[in-house]
Amino acid sequence: MGGGGSALRVCADHRGGINWISLSPDGQRLLTGSEDGTARLWSTADGQCCALFQGHESYVTFCQLENDAAFTCSADHTIRKWDVLSGQCLAVYRGHTSIVNRILVVNSQLFSSSYDRTARCWSMEEEQVFQEFRGHRNCVLTLAYSASWDLHGTPCELEEDMARGLLVTGSTDGTAKVWQVAGGCCHQTLRGHTGAVLCLVLDTASHEVFTGSTDATIRAWDILSGEQLRVFREHQGSVICLELVNRHVYSGSADRTVKCWLADTGERVRTFKTHGHSVSALKYHAGTCYFAKKVQERVWGPLPTFTPQECGKDLNVQSA
Q1: CA atoms lying within 13 Å on the CB side of residue 231
Q2: Helix/strand/coil for 148
Q3: How many helices (H) and strands (E) does the chain have?
Q4: Which residues are CB-contacts of 291 (< 8 A; sequence separation ≥ 6)?
Q5: Of the residues 24, 48, 52, 126, which has the maximum number of CB atoms within 10 A of its CB?
C-alpha cells in the first residue's frame, strides 16, 4: 500500500456502482446508495453489512445517515426515510417530476434537488412540500444549508428574511444560487464556472461556499455578497465531490485523484492517487477519509490533514 495511506476495507455486496456514501454522526456506521436501487448500512469497525434498504424503483442517487434514520433519493423521483434497525420504510416523499439528485436533512428540515430544475423544502412529518425554489435554468444537482444562527454579522435588514436560514444550490446551468428559505427568494447568483456545478460545501463561520465543477476548478465565494474569492486549479477532470475539514478542502475528481487544499489560499497540500476510477463520493471523519469509486465496492483509508510546511509531497492511496 502507499506510504502512510492504505485501503482498510473493501466491500462488494452491491450489484451496481456506488453513487454516494454517508457516515453516522459517531462515525461507527456507513450508508451507501447504489445503482442497484438499494442502500446498505455498514459497520466501519469490521466492514460488515448491517442492513439492506429496498423499495426504490430505480437507482439511488444519494443518501444521508442520521442517528436513528436513513434517507435516500432516487431516479424514481422519490425520497424515502428508513428505520436503521428494522430496514422498514417509514415515509415516501413524492412531488418531484424528475430524478432527485440530492437530499439534505438538517434541523428537522428536509431539502432536495432535482432534474426538474427545482429544489424543495419538505415537512418531514406531513410528507408535503413546504417551500419550492425555482430559478435555475437547468437541473439542480447539489445543495447545502446554513442555519440562521450561523449567520452572525448579517446586515440587520436581511435578518428577518434569513430567519429560516439560507439554502445554496448548484446546477448544470453553471451557477450556484443562494436562497432565503423562509420566502423562497434568490439572494445571490454565483457566476464564474464554465461548466456544471457538481458539488459544494459551506463554511458557515466565514460565510463561504466552495463549489466544484466540470470545468475542473474549485471556487470559493462569499455567500452574502456573491463575490468570488479564489479559484483552485490543478485537477485534470471534473470535480465531483468536496469535503471541508479544519480549513482544508478535500476534492475528489474524475482525474482519479483526491486533493487536499488550503481553504484560505487555494494552495494544494497533497494529492492522493486512488487509481483506476473516478472518485464519486468523499467523507472525512476523525482523521480518516472515506471515498467511493464508480465500481461495486467502497474503500476507505487514512488521509490526514496537513500543515502548510508539508506542501508538495504526494501520497498514494491504493484500493485493495
Answers
A1: 11
A2: helix
A3: 1, 29
A4: 21, 252, 258, 274, 279, 281, 282, 283, 299, 300
A5: 24
Residue 18 — pLDDT band, cuts 50, 70, 90?
A: confident
Taking only the tens place, the pLDDT of each residue in 149-162 is 555 555 545 555 56
User: For residue 286, what is its C-alpha cell?
Assistant: 476523525
Residue 126 to residue 272: CA distance in whole angstroms = 44
Within a 10 A sphere around the Cβ of 220, how many other Cβ atoms?
Answer: 22
Dist CA 103 CA 105 (whole Å): 7
Residue 77: CB atoms within 10 A of its CB come to 19
Most distant pair of Cα atoms in the chain: their distance:
55
Pairing of strands 239-245, 248-253: antiparallel
How much is the pTM?
A: 0.82
Please write the tens of the pLDDT for every residue from 81-106. 999 989 999 999 999 999 999 999 98
- Which is nearest to 38 in space by CA: 20, 13, 56, 62? 56
Give the span between the Cα atoms of 26 and 127, in whole angstroms: 27
Q: Are 15 and 34 in contact (CB under 8 A)?
A: yes
Q: Say how far apart CA 135 and CA 110 lie, in whole Å.
A: 20
pLDDT for the residue numbered 299:
39
Alpha helices (runs of H) in 50-178, residue ranges in sequence order: 156-159
Contact predicate 171/196, CB 8 Å: yes
CB 196 within 8 A of CB 136: no
| DSSP single-letter state for residue 236 | S
